[in-house]
Amino acid sequence: MKYAFFPGCSLESTGWDFERSTRAVCQALGIELVDIPDWVCCGSTPAHTTNASLSVALPVMNLQKAKSMGLPVLTACASCYSRLRTANHTVLNDPEERSRAERVTGKPYDGRVEVRHLLDVLVNDLGVDAVRAKVRRPLKNVKVACYYGCLLTRPPNIVAFDDAEHPSSMDQLLTAIGAEAVEWPFKTECCGASLSITRSEIVNRLSHRLLSMARQAGADCLAVACPLCESNLDLRQADATKAHGAIPETPVLYITQLVGLALGLSNKDVGLEALTISPEPLLAGIGRDL
Amino acid sequence: MPDTPDWQNSTFLKEVERRSGTPVSACFQCHKCSTGCPIGPDSDLLSSQVMRMIHLGQENSVLESQAIWLCASCEACTTRCPMQIDIAAVMDSLRMMAVEAKVDLPNARGEQFNRSFLQSVRRNGRVFELGMMVAYKLRSRDFFTDAEKTGQMLAKGKLSLLPKKSGSAKEVADVFRRAGEEEKKR
Q1: Which one of A170, A279, A283, B76 is separated from B89 by 20 to 30 angstroms, measured CA to CA?
Q2: Domains in chain B and their CATH numbers?
Q3: Residue A89, number of CB atoms within 10 A of its CB
């Protein structure tokens, strides 16, 4: 299995541990990632709320590069995933937008390079049985709330690898590595990522809601598949509990950090030192230390 | 200036539908979008109210609202609308229309953030977080929010001191210029 890898800006900075753990887990599972050379920012929310032509052209620049590699694209960031898929959808369904994107980028593009999220590839291409077969240290005693966030499953006519309201792929993956995925109702509630810088008080309210519901459902940690979700729930957790009431400190880990630990990778291989809320209690439960 | 509800004034409705490419007029006020909206409690208007005010041609009230800037682009409304209205796309179009109309933004931070972010991408081909944050802080004059986070993030290697420029940064600058020209033709 071979993919053109699109890391995206967050995985180079605030989410470097997601990049490191993604590369380590893919290597351990035999998934080959070839970086898209000179990839550029997908434009994220600032582009699609400012300039419609730009919001299609920036992802298209990357898809044109991937096209010449002859590989499907894999990305780990839920926001990049959404922007790349949306650009494909626009180019495929709107001839006027397609020619606009081709004029802006100066190159042809037919909208047909496949774009996949890492979670989709792990569960649907590789399969949870293949992951289970490589588990060396099952995450017994770990109760995890699988948090999909907004853009991994929405809108379903554009992303569509799991159910938009009640997704289960992350639950399947983490169950396969020995963890217990708790049932909880906020799997796809938004953390307010795009307001993180401008209206952090709203993000604190939303993060607190998610964290307290996960705790009420019996989880002792959260799993995420998006660098923006991680930042809001982990880095801002102290602000959220200060503003809206105490909750026990709740580690928030990327799916690749949890999978990597189960595969027997080291704490450093999966970048645990980048977490703000210490995962120590969780590690103690599986007989490891920080 | 207060708007007067006007059933005959469909100019605004038509313009929003044209720009967003979605049938706002199909909204029958079921409020499903508002019920699932994460920022509902923080907003001055609910999304279903925005839809109704567009029907009624209340252009000023809509373009001057906080609601269009508070939208988190989470797509819950778009996913759940029984009439397949892409409500999140409507919010995007309304922001662009508000900026073009130079309305007095109730809270300009959203627009200041967008400009800072895109300026960074235009220059480097990728976002340079630290530079983007400095630009945003200067624009918004919001110096204290999250000030302590910067140190924490630097310590954890989450912010780099120098931009990691894309090898295609020059092409990105050209794409920005041409995208700007295309938008003027819409």
Answers
A1: A170
A2: 11-100 (1.10.1060.10), 109-175 (no CATH)
A3: 18
Chain A nearest-CA distance from B30, in A, is 19
- DSSP secondary-structure letter at B26? G
Q: Does B32 touch chain A (CB under 8 A)?
A: no
Contacting residues for A220 by C-beta, under 8 A, at least 6 apart: A142, A143, A144, A250, A251, A281, A282, A285
Are A217 and A177 within 8 A, CB to CB?
no
Domain of residue A253 covers 135-285
Per CB-CB distance under 8 Å, the chain B contacts of A45 are 73
- Cα distance from B50 to chain A (closest Cα, Å)? 17
B1 pLDDT above the threshold of 70:
no
- Give the model confidence (pLDDT) of B10-37 as tens digits: 799 999 999 999 999 999 999 999 999 9
Secondary structure of residue B183 in the 3-state scheme: helix
CB of A252 within 8 A of CB of A225?
A: no
Q: Is there a contact between A278 and A41 (Cβ–Cβ < 8 Å)?
A: no
- Which residue, A263, A189, A257, is CA-closest to A223? A257
Q: What angle, rounded to 10 degrees, do the helices at A95-105 and A78-93 form?
A: 120
User: Do A51 and A154 have their domain in common?
Assistant: no
Domain count, chain A: 2
Q: Cβ separation of A189 and B38 shorter than 8 Å?
A: yes
**A105 plus A170 within the same structural domain:** no
Could you tell me the pLDDT band of residue B117, with boundaries at 50, 70 and 90?
Answer: very high
The string of pLDDT tens digits covering residues A95-137 is 999 999 999 999 999 999 999 999 999 999 999 999 999 999 9
